[in-house]
Write a structure and sequence with these properties.
Elements lengths: L10 H15 L11 H13 L8 E2 L1 H9 L6 H16 L4 E6 L2 E6 L4 E7 L13 E4 L1
Length: 138
């Protein structure tokens, strides 16, 4: 930006210079003018519907302790199936899901892909689960 003879450019005159400079200096950036709000919204909602397709399932401290206390070890295949069940629950709009798999029951917070608690069939003798809004059986 040059100032000549005491004439200062207006904000409108220099906005493109600074906006384009910021976009060009950002790694992996896309020209802001080429993406519409609708495109961003679609991408965001599609990402939520397909959530956890490639992400790692997390276990809360409580769930990890429950698994360790009961000497339950999950194989990579079981974790992949549990993650798939979480993804399927998310696709249906479930927030707190019961996932039943291989004589095991998991309560999963779907938006955060976090297993809240885990139990085996000996603990599910009452067959009553609270604070869930959906279930996935795999």
């Amino acid at each position: 930006m040059r100032i000549q003879n005491g004439n200062y450019p207006s904000a409108l005159q220099v906005q493109d210079q600074f906006l384009n400079q910021n976009v060009q200096n950002t790694p992996n950036s896309v020209d802001a003018k080429s993406i519409s709000f609708q495109d961003i919204l679609k991408a965001k909602t599609a990402g939520e519907a397909m959530m956890h397709a490639g992400s790692t399932l997390k276990f809360s401290k409580h769930a990890a302790n429950r698994l360790a206390d009961r000497q339950i070890t999950l194989s990579d295949s079981q974790i992949a199936r549990l993650s798939d069940g979480t993804r399927r629950a998310g696709a249906k709009g479930i927030q707190e899901s019961l996932v039943l798999m291989d004589q095991l029951a998991f309560i999963v917070n779907v938006p955060s892909a976090t297993v809240i608690t885990a139990m085996d069939q000996t603990e599910t003798n009452e067959n009553v689960f609270t604070n869930i809004d959906g279930a996935v059986i795999i």
